[in-house]
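Methods: example folding runs. The two proteins below were folded one after another, and each record is reproduced exactly as written to the output file, sequence line first and structure-token line second.
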Amino acid sequence: MSADGFVEKPNLPNNSVTLCICSDRYTADALNRLGIKTLGTVPSPFLLPEVSTHPDMQLCHTGGKTVVIDSFQKGLSASLAENGFAVITDASPERKYPGDIIYNAALCADTAFGLTERLSEKLSAELTRRKTKTVRVNQGYAKCSVCVVEKRAIITDDPGIAAAAKRLGFDVLTAEKGDIFLSDSHYGFIGGCSGKISKDTIAFTGCLDSHRNCDQIRTFLKKHGCKPLELTNGILKDVGSILPVKEEKECIHWVLTSEELNAR
């Protein structure tokens, strides 16, 4: 039988995911039907209502057992601790940009993109401790803006992140902005509507055909050995990312020859 293990490289599970952080009820229900457990935030009074439950605004999984999280999210912190995580609590985000993006770093294995000088003190310290390469970009909503495909492959709707990633040798698909719902007054971002749920599967909160770059996205995923899984038939919705944090451990299966099997 398989058992839970921690996702060692942020956003990049090697096996089927067993636990995600996702606060949108409909997305969580769809993941639960796939056998994936979910944990969520409670609405934060420190953030605008349209993003008040978004995980990527209130925590950052830095890899393995470690999660840095807003101290206000006591219930989620307790649930993470019960699941074996080492939880580091830090300051709460502020309502206005850029005070609201203190946890919003896009981690791709050992690289983190973000408005680095505005990240929380403890998140910055943890990235340094883990020797994660931090790359400063002007886009504060970095995790919102990045769909992590592989260690060196991303989809982003931010030109600045795209340029920075390309300079580091990443394969990048730059998607056009828009076509992702956040609220009646603001559109969402590609990272906020997606997340990997296995090594070769990326879950999307809605139908890819609702995005003008759907064909390019499908082609890019196929290029990197991934396939999309559309959780609903509706439009894509920015829910603050689907964050995979635990996965099945690899199992060793003994393969018996027919002679060995008959001898038993």
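Second run, written to the same file directly after the first:
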Amino acid sequence: MNMYASNLAKKTKLNWDDKLSLEFSGDAPQVTSLSIEKTEDAITVFLCGNSTVVDQDNEPWASWGQMIPRFFNDKVAFANYAESGESANTFIGANRLKKAVSQMKAGDYVFIEFGHNDQKQKGPGKGAYYSYMTSLKTFIDEARLKGAHPVLVTPTQRRSFDEQGKIKDTHEDYPEAMKWLADKENVPLIDLHSMTRTLYEALGVEESKKAFVHYPANTYPNQPQPLQDNTHFNPYGAYEIAKCVIEGMKAIHLPLINYLLPDYNGFDPAQPDDFNSFHWVPSMAVEVEKPDGN
């Protein structure tokens, strides 16, 4: 993608300008007024990642990054800098890290989840223990220079079952490379790779489709073909994985958990929430084209 096309794409993103876009739909109460006040003391959690983290603009696509703010009080703000199709090095090359760093303050957090797209890069200097690890180290160093706390997050599993109903690891050495770096640099790590394996296996081969963008043809406008995506989540799947991330925070005792809302009752990936009890009002914004990345 050339620079002109890249800039044009950013202009269509709802989270890449200085405007605030709001949608009120379904059973939301009627809004008669809205007041927005600036606060200086909120902890900001910067999210850096790919399509499994990004604020998806259109349904049925969703990510854990856009669901997780629901569980925290107003002492924590989430700034989602993730973008579909990004690898750790392309994220840096697109100046996304530079933009995030320009907004950071001491005491903030930087969550870093890459791996899905990084493993597709081939050639000299590429690989889990080469360019990938070098790029992750850049995230860590830049965050620490600003007094922020880096947190590494291993990539979510793909929905890839074997004949025994177990998830097949498809990320090669990338999760282990991240773990090695976390240990070497003394950086907290959330092992989302392991938790999503547990989650998908608990749901099972067929039921796990309800957590992903799997829909029959003509479920949405201009959708003549079935949607069968085993990487990207729908709102239910994103909601469940956001809870996995929170449980990961609890496991490593991140102080952020002190700001969870009182109605968060914990979560066990081995016992997913019942899909039929998940209430979600669909957005008016729909897109059947698959996001970048796999």
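Comment on the second run: DSSP finds eight helices and seven strands in the chain.
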